[in-house]
Description:
One of its GO terms (biological process) is folic acid metabolic process. GO terms for molecular function: dihydrofolate reductase activity; NADP binding. Keywords: NADP, One-carbon metabolism, Oxidoreductase. It holds the Pfam family DHFR_1. Its EC number is 1.5.1.3. By secondary structure, this protein is of the alpha/beta class. The protein has a domain at about 30-45 and about 115-210: Dihydrofolate Reductase, subunit A, CATH 3.40.430.10. The protein is about 25% helix and about 25% strand. It contains 7 helices and 11 strands. It has helices spanning about 10-15, 25-30, 60-70, 75-80, 100-110, 120-130, 145-150, and strands at about 35-40, 45-50, 75, 95-100, 115, 140, 155-165, 170, 180-185, 195, 200-210. The longest helix is centred in the N-terminal third of the chain and has 11 residues, at about 60-70. NADP nicotinamide-adenine-dinucleotide phosphate (NAP) binds near residues 47, 77, 78 and 144.
Amino acid sequence: MSSPDRSIDAPGERRRALLPRPAASADATAGRPLVPMIWAQTSGGVIGDDGGMPWHLPEDFQHLKTMTAGCPIIMGRRTWESLPSSVRPLPGRRNMVITGDASRAAEIQAAGGETASCLAEAYRRVLEAGHEPDRPVWIFGGNSVYTEAISSGLTDAAVITVIDLDVDGDTHAPELDPGEWELWTHEPPEGWLTAANGLRYRFETRRRTTASDTGAGPR
Ligand SMILES: NC(=O)c1ccc[n+]([C@@H]2O[C@H](COP(=O)([O-])OP(=O)(O)OC[C@H]3O[C@@H](n4cnc5c(N)ncnc54)[C@H](OP(=O)(O)O)[C@@H]3O)[C@@H](O)[C@H]2O)c1
């Protein structure tokens, strides 16, 4: 297991302080960590293709690293497999991988990841292992895990990198109903940032406005 590294984490703590807070009452969420989702997508909602991402945006990798450093990340088995073996498990973070396949679980564990058989178990195990409540538990994808995190009420926030790119893909971001998910922050305030390779992108956070069973988690 990779243990949190506080020494590299000051930028992450500053940025995470801006994460949307749940709409539920303070009583309902007391002591629970934030459980935001994080992904990068094209303007058309593509997040993946053929087991990878159909773009190269180092600025987004840096953003992802900054936001998740020192925090647990929960991902599906296909997302785990999409990571280059040289950075798998992603360092300085607990990598919790969901798989229903025992032989794949053994391979993931041998490579340094932790495994759980479903999202509920993954979340429970992260909390059981002495998780510091001031640290978010990140939902790291892919589509199947985002979708379950939303439908189960586990997550109330999304940190999204939108890339101004028109490409096809086989995996899409989950639908966030604008009536239920408000735009919380966007950077820059208007227009786009431009990467060193010329790609245009922006960072958005969205917050679920309905307080439902915030933080109760999957059942
Ligand atoms: N752009 C981004 O920010 C971003 C982020 C993440 C992922 N991605 C992309 O998304 C794609 C992968 O996403 P995906 O939706 O196809 O797959 P995924 O969600 O990463 O993984 C799906 C797998 O996870 C396991 N799983 C998920 N939920 C489960 C449950 N409730 N119970 C048991 N097992 C469960 C199953 O593994 P088993 O089959 O082993 O049982 C399932 O086949 C890749 O192309 C990746 O590059 C992009």
